[in-house]
Amino acid sequence: MEQRLKAVWQRIEAAAAKSGRSKDDVRLVAVSKTVPIQKIERAVSAGVTIIGENYIQEAREKFHQIYEMPVSWHFIGHLQRNKARHAVEMFDMIHSVDSLRLAVEIDKQARKIDKIQEVLIQVNLAGEATKSGISIPVASDLIREAAHLEYVSIKGLMTMPPFFNAPERVRPYFRQLRQMRDDLLAQGIPGIEMTELSMGMTGDFEVAVQEGATLVRIGTAIFGERR
């Protein structure tokens, strides 16, 4: 575990340097879907500071066991509106907001506990029907409307590009998300920051870092193959 984590950070540092960035510009989200609690504890002890979970129920079971550990919790899976309350209660950041209705529900639940919920807007760059995320043409409208929500803080964008065995084939999608972020910033929309780009997983995170990722979601390279 420790050696795997060290190797991941070395790869992040090398990828960042290749594009003139610092490894400090990139945060590692350790994706712990189906990973037993003992492995997560080891990862945190080895230096992991962000845990990424895909499913609310699984996350709740883990959260209550290790909530005292010095780790931030990020929700990276598809979020149903009826699970928004649980997400707001547990997670420091929600990566997967893809509709105004979901953003409004998050705002409603965050208001109840007086919490400013940090979120990312998930963009479906390739228009894949099997993946969540808002389409490019309407993303700007969603962000403009959600920016008015008092208890939601939009921090940036997230994407899951099509799967390719060759990371270079994914590069255009990462580049497109970065350009989209830059275009949104240029619009000067009040109430948003757009500092975060959540993109890149075990098979392609180095390319994502080169293209500007600030959050990389890595599971297998840290925890090994899932069973």
Briefly summarize what is shown.
The protein has 9 helices and 8 strands. It has helices spanning about 1-20, 35-45, 55-65, 85-90, 100-110, 135-145, 170-185, 205-210, 220-225; strands at about 25-30, 50-55, 70-75, 95, 115-125, 150-160, 190-200, 215-220.
Notes on the structure:
The chain is α/β, with parallel strands linked by helices and 227 residues long. The chain is built from nine helices and eight strands. The mean pLDDT is 93. It has a single domain, classed as Alanine racemase (TIM Barrel).
Beta content: 15-25%
- The oligomeric state is single chain
User: Structural class per helix/strand content?
Assistant: alpha/beta
Number of helices: 9
CATH superfamily (homologous) name: Alanine racemase
Uncertain stretches:
none
As a percent range, the share of helical residues equals: 40-55%
Biggest sheet, open or closed, and with what strands and sense? Answer: 8 strands, parallel
The CATH architecture can be given as: Alpha-Beta Barrel
List the secondary-structure elements in sequence, H or E. HEHEHEHEHEHEHEHEH
**N-to-C span:** 16 Å
Mean pLDDT across all residues, rounded? 93
Identify the CATH class. Alpha Beta
Query: What gyration radius follows from the Cα positions, in whole Å?
Result: 17 Å
**Annotated CATH topology:** TIM Barrel
Strands, count: 8
Number of domains: 1
